[in-house]
UniProtKB/TrEMBL annotation:
SUPFAM superfamilies xrefs: Periplasmic binding protein-like II (SSF53850), Winged helix' DNA-binding domain (SSF46785)
Molecular function as annotated in GO: DNA binding; DNA-binding transcription factor activity
Segments forming a coiled coil: none
Protein name: LysR family transcriptional regulator
GO cellular component, one term: protein-DNA complex
PANTHER family associated with the record: HCA OPERON TRANSCRIPTIONAL ACTIVATOR HCAR, TRANSCRIPTIONAL DUAL REGULATOR HCAR-RELATED
Organism: Deinococcus ficus
Region annotation Disordered: where it falls in the sequence: 296-318
InterPro entries noted in UniProt: LysR_HTH_N (IPR000847), LysR_subst-bd (IPR005119), WH-like_DNA-bd_sf (IPR036388), WH_DNA-bd_sf (IPR036390)
Keywords, sorted A to Z: DNA-binding, Transcription, Transcription regulation
Amino acid sequence: MELRHLRHFVALAEEEHFGRAAERVFVVQQALSNSIRNLEDEVGVPLVLRTTRRVQLTPAGQEFLIGARETLARAAQTVDRARRAARGEVGRLTVGFVSGLAFGGLPEIVRRFRELYPNVSVDLRELTAQEQEAALRGGLIDIGLMLLPVRDPGLDSRALWRQPLVAALPAGHPLARKRRLHIRDLRQEPFVFFPRHLRATYFDQVMRWTAQAGYTPNVVQEAIEVPTLLSLVAAGVGVFLPIQFFSRLALPGVVYRPVEDAPLVEIVAVWQREAGGRTPVVRAFLSVAREALDAQEGAPADAGPDGSEGAPVPSRFR
């Protein structure tokens, strides 16, 4: 039994006339008549009563019509679902992200993606860059959001946007009175920072930057989470150089100041290079990510927690 047989039968049942039904399904009348007879032979019972004026359904045909319509509707839904999956409009997407993106970038991207693709289930997992690379290799996540560089040759990446580093200072610090700083202004300050093994890319970039200014930061306290480091700043333990989107984390006792010539940290989307790694859902997510980040351009600068001017809003990588 083929779907065309069901379509022919439904058309005949609704038109009650072989000629009109044949025109409706774009076949000649004899072909439609043969299709209905073949269907009756397969079912094993008469489905229609043929008269000189009109066609009527038998009791068996009336019941068969209900099932035929349901089957055709399910077939259409199945085709539609396949086409939507090919466009990335249905399915499941697991996204890994480094912790800092929760304060900027990620919320905008996920909110917009869920608006445009409500039938895609999005699972978010907070992972370090190294954990994301391992998860991508193992198929545990579909796409990762992290900082450059991406070391695994089996992964592809696309730059999404850049973020400068800013200075996080205790609110009462003398440097907090300045609107902008130079990196050399911090050369005598104690620093709080991540252990290198947890944020090697981030750590090394900061060290290169300060080395160009003629010093190595005096790291007096380490912590593994940004909120903890900012709490240490608020307590006056030291200064910190977070990526700009952390300035959205308003913490009493901490102010953020732009730093002249601050290095730009590149944030990228990463996926498996092998065939199938960049699925339609992944492609849809990448497209939405670009659009969501573009929408942030031109927005006013964020205010610091003390009401002063904060760091400028991030712009997309070009």
